[in-house]
Write a structure and sequence with these properties.
By secondary structure, the chain is mostly beta strands. It contains one helix and eleven strands, in the order βββββββββαββ.
């Protein structure tokens, strides 16, 4: 059985930083894409950033460019999200997602591409 477990969320002031981790078990995702999505209260879940398995290509939504960085450690089957210069609008539950497929940029931003999901971790940015 596959499990994705996120950690590292919390409360931070605007301008601060947080680092999220997502540890996968039950399946190896070294050749597949792992991603982060987020869902703010009253809003739909949205794509944040992904990292492919083949050559580690990263892809992110415009609102986090230059602030968020995704990385992965295939030996640990873990993906990380370094979030800097946080803004109140970044407040959301952050979800880790994974697939054994590599895909392309046409796939990475779509919720349906990812069969495996974590339970989420809350990130709250105060103004």
């Amino acid at each position: 059985q596959v499990h994705l477990v996120e950690s590292g969320g919390g409360l931070v002031q605007a301008g601060g930083s947080l680092r999220l981790s997502c540890a996968a078990s039950g399946r190896t995702f070294s050749s597949g894409t792992m991603a982060w999505f987020r869902q703010a209260p009253g809003k739909e879940r949205e794509f944040v950033v992904s990292v492919s398995g083949s050559i580690g290509t990263t892809y992110c939504t415009d609102s986090v460019k230059g602030r968020f960085t995704v990385s992965r450690d295939n030996a640990k089957n873990t993906v990380y999200l370094q979030m800097n210069s946080l803004k109140p609008e970044d407040t959301a539950v952050y979800y880790c997602a994974a697939t054994s497929s590599d895909g392309t940029v046409w796939n990475w931003g779509h919720l349906g591409w990812y069969p495996y999901w974590g339970q989420g971790t809350q990130v709250t940015v105060s103004s």
